[in-house]
Amino acid sequence: MPGIVKALIAFCFLALVSGCETFQFYQQAARGQAALLWRRTPTDELLQSKIDPALRDRIETAGQILGFASQIGLPVSGAYRSYVETGEPYVVWNVFAAPKDSLNPKVSCFVIAGCLPYRGYFSKADANQYARRLNKKGYDTYIAGVKAYSTLGWLNDPILSTIIEREDVSLAQILFHELAHQKIYVKNDAQFNEGFAMAIADHGARLWAADRNTNFNSSRKNMEPELIKLVIDTKHKLNVLYSSNKTLEVKMTAKKKYFQDLINNNSL
C-alpha cells in the first residue's frame, strides 16, 4: 500500500511526534501510524455493508460535517474518508514535562512540525517509560491521552473510534479543529496553532449548529470563571517562587502547598 510506505518513510516529519532522534522513538511512531493505515476501512464501503445503526449514523453525520467544512474553506480533500476501530479510549499519549522549578515545558524539535512542548507515543507503556526517564532526570511529567491528531495533510487521516461517538456539534468541533491544522500551521508556535485550531473549531461548529438549527455549546465556554482565576493566580505564584533565590527544597515545599490550596479551593 503506497500510503503505508509513505507513512513509514515520512512519519518522522509529521505533527504527532517530536524530538528524540533515536531509532526506537521513530520506529514506534512509524509502526503506530502504519497500523492505523492497515486497519482503516473506507467509509463508503462501511455504509454499503451491514454495520451497527449507531455507527452508520455517526459516519453519515461525519460525512455531512466534512461537506460543510469544505463550504467554509477547510481543506477536506481525502481526509476522514475512512474509519478505524482502535479498541482503545485514546489513539496517542502525549508526554509533557518541565523542570521541577520551572513552568517552561521541555520542548522536542522536529523537522516539519518544529519544536513542540510534548512528545507523542502510540503506546501508553512507551509514554510511561519515557516519563520515568525524565522523572529520573529531575522533571515533573504529565501524560495526557489524545483522542485525535492531524498529520498536517501528509496522509489522509481516518475517522477514529475514539471520537466517532461524540454528539453532532462536538464531532464537528474536533473535525474542524484537526482540519484547521492543515489550513494553517506555523512551525515552532504550538500556542498559536492550538489557539487558531480551537477558534476555527468553535466558529465552524457554531455555523454548523446554526445551519442545522441546533444549539451550540462549547465546553470551554462553560469553564467556571472561578477555576480559571485560581489557575492563573497559582501560575503567577509559581513564577514568583521559581524566580526567587530560595533553595530548591523551600521551593518544592511551597509548590506543594500552592497545589494543595488550588485543590482545596476548587473543591469548595
Describe the structure.
By secondary structure, the protein is mostly helical. The protein has a domain at 225-266. Helix content is 53%, strand content 12%. The chain is built from ten helices and eight strands. A three-stranded mixed beta sheet has the order 1-2-8. Helix 1 (2-10) runs antiparallel to helix 2, helix 7 (168-183) packs across helix 8 (190-211) and helix 9 runs antiparallel to helix 10. It is globular and about 65 Å long. The termini are far apart.
Helix and strand layout, with pairings?
Layout lengths: L1 H9 L12 H17 L1 E2 H6 L4 H19 L10 E3 L7 E8 L8 E3 L3 E3 L2 E3 L2 H13 L2 E8 L12 E2 H4 L3 H16 L6 H22 L13 H18 L5 H19 L2
Parallel strand pairs: 2-8
Antiparallel strand pairs: 1-2, 3-6, 3-7, 4-5
Helix pairs in contact: 1-2, 4-7, 7-8, 9-10
Briefly summarize what is shown:
With 268 residues, the chain is mostly helical.
Features of this protein?
three-stranded mixed sheet, 12% strand, globular, mainly alpha, 268 residues, disordered N terminus, 8 strands
